[in-house]
Amino acid sequence: MRARLVVVFLVPLIAVLLALGGAAGWSAARSIQQTFYTQQLGDLGYFVTTARQSLLAGSTAVFDAEAARFQEVYGTQVAVFDLSGGVWAASDIASSRPLSETQGEQVVQALSGRRAETPTPAQPWVVADLSLVEPVFDDGDVIGAVMISATGEAARVAIARQVTIFAVIAVVSIALGIGLVFQLARWVLSPVRRLDEAMVAIEHGAMDARVDVDTGPPELRRATQVFNGMADEIERVVARQQEFAANASHELRNPLNALLLRVEYLATGLGPEWDGDVEETRQEGRRMTEILETLLALTRSGRGDSTFSAVDLTALAARRAGAWREVAAQRGVTLNADGGDAVLSVTDRMIVESALDALIDNAVKFSPDGGVVDLRAARDGVECSITVRDHGPGLTPDQAVQAADRFWRGADGDDVPGSGLGLAIATDLMRSIGGDLLVSPADGGGLRVALRLRDGRAE
């Protein structure tokens, strides 16, 4: 964003400065060029008067002195031609140099009565060496011609000096503009940067992160105030949720402990044939205790710490199938767990079990009487999965995409008890350990839901 803001301000600024500098340089160069040509015409008019007096007097003494002095001071060569086109008088250097073809044509035209014309080059920075020829009149008759030859070196140096000055001014102005634009961008974007830092801090659990409203444009100060108000509300909501979860989990511990004690008490009066059921009850009680402890830790720290260890997903699926088998049997549903080779994954056992329970519960509820639900663990490279496949009504591909959304329920599930949160909760659980949940229609009807563990966690 900062780069875009700098470009938006900087490009027009540079364009304006270059346009102004170019226009000023063009005007200065044109002025120097015109001054040079005007000066040569003035000098030519002066020597026409001197040459008339010398020609009428028949003496070159006055003209020679003026021409020599003028060439010494300004480096401009002056020559006077008689009616035959020959050099009648000239400065020393001018008399020794032959005329060019252009100069010869100019002399012929001047002796015919044509006056000199000022050249008009298209580019203002072009100042070529100049030769001008003017006829000398006496009572309307041409009695000779005067030619001056001036070098444009001084004008070219002056133009180069002016262009250099304007270029330096433009560069300095652009540098100052760049510094000003960066300072402006920093002033405008500093609240945005602080907002971004505060949002990142809140994302990482620092719910008390806020942004000062002292700096920045008024519009962004208003946005900062709104953000702080939103953060306050989020902090209050999260605090209430954590308080509720802490209270609920704490209140559940006492009846759970009492229930486990009663199970132990009842177990003393049962025969050996009940040992398996009693042990399964103990395991479920211990699992519920672990869930409550994790919930309490989450409410205290604001972020749960997953405990990763090597887990046999095949054994885990078989164990959860056994725990749900009696519930499924009451609904006329058979649970089958593939007892194949071990599938090892480094993951959080409790989270995977909780997510798998949500899938099994969902599959059992939507399976018809006499239906079968299959559980299978598999490994594909570095990815492990547990798949729950039922033979219920199933979903269309479009419905399967929405199945993991919160509170979503299919049209065929209105008469089935539930809140539409099972798959959504399972999805959140899997994402917390770097996995995901995939819902897809099964071949031959029904639904296939897979818990996938990847990103290097699978072995």
TrEMBL record:
Superkingdom as given in the UniProt entry: Bacteria
CDD domains associated with the record: HAMP, HATPase, HisKA
Positions of the HAMP domain: 186-239
GO cellular component: plasma membrane
Domain Histidine kinase: 247-457
UniProt keyword terms in alphabetical order: Kinase, Membrane, Phosphoprotein, Transferase, Transmembrane, Transmembrane helix, Two-component regulatory system
Top-level EC class as recorded in UniProt: transferase
Transmembrane segments: 165-189
Statement: the UniProt record of this protein carries the keyword Transmembrane: yes
Enzyme Commission number: 2.7.13.3
GO molecular function terms attached to this record: phosphorelay sensor kinase activity
Reactions that this protein is recorded to catalyse: ATP + protein L-histidine = ADP + protein N-phospho-L-histidine
Compartments where found: Cell membrane
InterPro entries, A to Z: HAMP_dom, HATPase_C_sf, HATPase_dom, His_kinase_dom, HisK_dim/P_dom, HisK_dim/P_sf, Sig_transdc_His_kin-like_C, TCS_sensor_his_kinase
Name of protein: histidine kinase
Source species: Microbacterium natoriense
Taxonomic lineage of the native organism: Bacteria, Bacillati, Actinomycetota, Actinomycetes, Micrococcales
